[in-house]
Amino acid sequence: MLEIRWSPPVSLQPLALGWLAAAGVEVGVLRLDLIDPLISGNKWYKLAPHLAAAARQGAEGLISLGGPHSNHLHALAAAGRRFAFPTAGLLRGEPCETPTVRDLQTFGMHLHWLGYGGYRARHRDGFWDVWRERYPRLHPVPEGGGGLPGALGCTVLRDMLLSGLEALGWPDYHGWWLAAGTGTTLAGLVLAEAGAHPVHGALAVPASHGVAPQVRAILTEAGMADVGYRLLDASRGGFARLDAGLARFILDSEREGGIPLDPVYTGKALLALREQVECGGIPRGSRLVFVHTGGLQGRRALAERLQRLGTRG
Ligand SMILES: *Cc1c(COP(=O)(O)O)cnc(C)c1O
Question: Where does the record place the modification N6-(pyridoxal phosphate)lysine (predicted)?
């Protein structure tokens, strides 16, 4: 049942923004937010190898965990709905209604609220025992779909780019730019590039969250050298922190460039790119691929704040 053959459509678009043109830098956006009406973003690619493993083991569906705005659970529930397999989600915190949670319910995901303490226990030995007993036919997926399997699922992003370069009118490209949370997607690109092009990761979390060791661990496990990428802090002081400068930047970029951004990942990543471009960190004539990793479903809960902060003053 879980044998899913689906190659999402490739959408690559040039990004027309004044500050890019002024610096002579070209950006093409790999729109993972447009792969499907229900499933959006990088999370599908991280899930695909887990789905394949589940199919090999004869499982019927997947169970995973996340917060009440989780892009990961949203993609999993949407995939379950789209391809007709059962899903269960273990949620952090106390029961609450968010646009994400309402979608999870609509998609038919079985939800369980673990509280905060219960959620913190997710790394303990035996955590999964009770859930395995309750859902013997569901294959467990680690939080966010991380690790080497998730990274390997993201190596196809390079193939997607190569198949779409011509549509962009580009003879080649000089590197990747993307938001990093756990660094799994970035690690997948580094594996796919094997040193051919640099991968720049704009960290949506403070550097102290251990992204660098996580990326290194994935590369080491894959037998690759720890090279070919760079991480920079784009968190603006904390995960999911939204300030007026970021809000204004997102609204302005959308108006000018026509591409919707989310405040947690893609907005911060593009703002970090502008800062690099403006301080001369990106050579004139560069052609960069910006990965739109999705996240727009999570933006709904922040829409009002985004407008309020972004249009003030
Ligand atoms: C999860 C997520 C990321 C981060 O992906 P990692 O593989 O954890 O680095 C980036 N952007 C969006 C929109 C996400 O949902």
Answer: 43
Q: Which residues pair with 180 in a beta bridge?
A: 203
Q: Please give the pLDDT value at position 313.
A: 61
Q: How far apart are CA 77 and CA 74, in angstroms?
A: 5
Element spanning 77, H or E: helix 71-83
Q: Which atom of ligand 1 is nearest to the CA of 46?
A: 7
- Both 106 and 208 in one domain: the answer is no
Enter the pTM of the model. Answer: 0.97
Asked whether residue 5 is domain-assigned, the answer is no
Place of tokens 């080649």: 172
Asked if residue 139 and residue 170 are part of one domain, the reply reads no
Cα–Cα distance for residue pair 149/47, rounded to 1 Å: 8
Catalytic residue status for 253: no
**Across the strands, what pairs with 305?**
none
Average pLDDT score over residue span 37-59: 95
pLDDT averaged over every residue in the chain: 96
Q: Is 293 in the pocket of ligand 1 (CB under 6 A)?
A: yes
pLDDT of residue 17: 98
**Cα(192)–Cα(30) distance, integer angstroms:** 16
